[in-house]
């Protein structure tokens, strides 16, 4: 009987240890239902939001504030992601999209990426390709990224978990000293230090960071999050984005 009790105690301790271990690992990453899976400003007055197997197209009005319902989805959206809507894109869902400039957008899914010719409106034939040191020099996250955004001036920012890095387009490599942690020193006012879902440059001097059903507006010139955020994604702040 004593041996049986000792055996049960050991078993319980092992289970508890495994449970705590899993909990500790999970605590390093946030877990929620994404409202925005990926987003990108196409640079032609249109922005695209992706989630699951669907996408929305927004008409971008940088002269109007989101608080006065200046921006909203175009009629007929959401639409499915397929070969008719996104020729050559093999994935029904994407992790991140960035307008690289020069008529090229990059789509990311897991450890792969696709170069999309915006003028021809189709994926380039030599993609998808793996994320590695050859294709993305200095990018350590070969298993995928969470978000990417072009801030202009030849720099693209990549985000993964609680870190980010800055990529030089002309040099085609990660800048020295990166990745860095996402915190109040690197992104003042950004309370989400353990990860974001996506970020988009709206073209009005603001970045919009998304996580779960909330968003933060970030002022590029002031280099800090605007006051009063995060806010809920709803029919008043982002008409049509809840789908």
Molecular structure report:
This protein is mainly β. It has a single domain, classed as Hemopexin. 11% of the residues lie in helices and 35% in strands. It contains one helix and 20 strands. Strands 1, 2, 3, 4 and 5 form a five-stranded antiparallel beta sheet that branches. Strands 6, 7, 8, 9 and 10 form a five-stranded antiparallel beta sheet that branches. Strands 11, 12, 13, 14 and 15 form a five-stranded antiparallel beta sheet that branches. The N terminus is likely disordered.
Features:
243 residues, mainly beta, Hemopexin, five-stranded antiparallel sheet, 1 helix
Q: Quick gist of this model?
A:
Helix content is 11%, strand content 35%.
């Amino acid at each position: 009987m004593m041996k049986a009790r000792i055996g049960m105690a050991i078993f319980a301790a092992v289970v508890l240890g495994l449970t705590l271990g899993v909990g500790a690992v999970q605590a390093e990453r946030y877990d929620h239902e994404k409202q925005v899976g990926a987003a990108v400003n196409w640079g032609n007055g249109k922005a695209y939001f992706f989630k699951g197997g669907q996408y929305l197209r927004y008409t971008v009005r940088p002269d109007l504030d989101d608080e006065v319902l200046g921006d909203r989805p175009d009629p007929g959206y959401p639409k499915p992601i397929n070969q008719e809507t996104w020729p050559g894109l093999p994935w029904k869902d994407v992790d991140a999209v960035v307008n690289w400039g020069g008529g090229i957008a990059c789509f990311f899914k897991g450890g792969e990426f696709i170069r999309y010719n915006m003028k021809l409106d189709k994926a380039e034939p030599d993609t998808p390709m793996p994320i590695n040191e050859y294709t993305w020099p200095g990018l350590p996250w070969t298993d995928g990224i969470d978000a990417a955004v072009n801030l202009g001036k030849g720099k693209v920012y990549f985000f993964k978990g609680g870190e980010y890095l800055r990529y030089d387009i002309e040099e085609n490599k990660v800048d020295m000293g990166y990745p860095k942690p996402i915190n109040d020193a690197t992104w003042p006012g950004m309370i989400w230090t353990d990860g974001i879902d996506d970020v988009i440059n709206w073209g009005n001097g603001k970045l919009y960071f998304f996580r779960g059903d909330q968003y933060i507006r970030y002022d590029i010139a002031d280099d800090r999050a605007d006051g009063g955020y995060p806010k809920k994604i709803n029919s008043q702040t982002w008409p049509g984005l809840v789908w």
